[in-house]
Amino acid sequence: MTAGSTPNPKRSLTPRRRAREYALQGIYQYLVIQKAGELSDAPLTISAITKQLGEDPAFKKCQGDLFASIFQGVIGQHQELDALIIPELDRPLAELSPVEHAAMLIGTYELAADLSVPYKVAINEAVELAKTFGGTDGHKYVNGVLDQLAQKLRQAEIVAN
User: Fold this and answer.
1) How far apart are CA 90 and CA 103, in angstroms?
2) How many other CB atoms sit within 10 Å of the CB of residue 75?
3) Are 103 and 25 in contact (CB under 8 A)?
4) CA angle at 34 for the pair 92 and 60, rounded to the nearest 5°
5) CA pseudo-torsion sign 160, 108, 63, 136
6) How many other C-beta atoms lie within 10 A of the C-beta of residue 128?
7) Is 9's pLDDT higher than 80?
8) pLDDT in tens, 32-57
9) Half-sphere exposure in the Cβ direction for 60 (13 Å, CA)
10) At what angle do helices 119-133 and 15-35 cross, to 10 degrees?
């Protein structure tokens, strides 16, 4: 450690958290490539991103089936998930950072498509991803948007708690 630097905060990197982190990285890449207009063959791009992420030695420590479910689910339902997110935004979707957008997509996917994940966990995991990889206060925005979505998508679960 150099003078003046601070140690990295210790993060809980369970296999599930790692899977979400790799999914975020893959979705981020996908969003950036899409925005640049270079997404001519989406299946090939998804395969290339998956292959590249899988080459990271730490990838073996993630829960592979969860990574695949989230990454492929978000990419496969990208437009539908954005349609859920957009009404909750106070700015155009294009103004979101790719990290915040990716975290919202993951949280929205888990809220909408994976009822085995409690709504509080889905929101918390997306917020943690935004804290780890996003800008200073981006996680607060992600939290607010996903909380509003949870009110719509998981109302029965919220009332039951």
Assistant:
1) 17
2) 22
3) no
4) 110
5) negative
6) 18
7) no
8) 988 877 656 666 788 899 999 999 99
9) 3
10) 60
For residue 62, give both structure tokens: 């993630």
Give the amino acid at 64: G
The span from the CA of 152 to the CA of 154, in Å, is 6
Instruction: Name residue 111's amino acid.
Output: L
Instruction: Tell the residue number behind the tokens 């490539």, with chain if given.
Output: 33
Residue with tokens 């991803």: 129
User: How crowded is residue 123: how many other Cβ atoms within 10 Å of its Cβ?
Assistant: 22
Cβ atoms of 21 and 12 within 8 Å: the answer is: no
Rounded CA gap, 23 and 148, in Å?
A: 23
The SS3 assignment for 39 reads coil
Q: Which tokens in the block code for residue 45? A: 């791009």
In the numeric block, which tokens belong to residue 102? 């990716």
- DSSP state letter for 7: P
CA distance 91 to 157: 29
Q: Are 119 and 156 in contact (CB under 8 A)?
A: no
Whether residue 7 is predicted with pLDDT greater than 90 in this model: the reply is no
pLDDT score of 138:
93
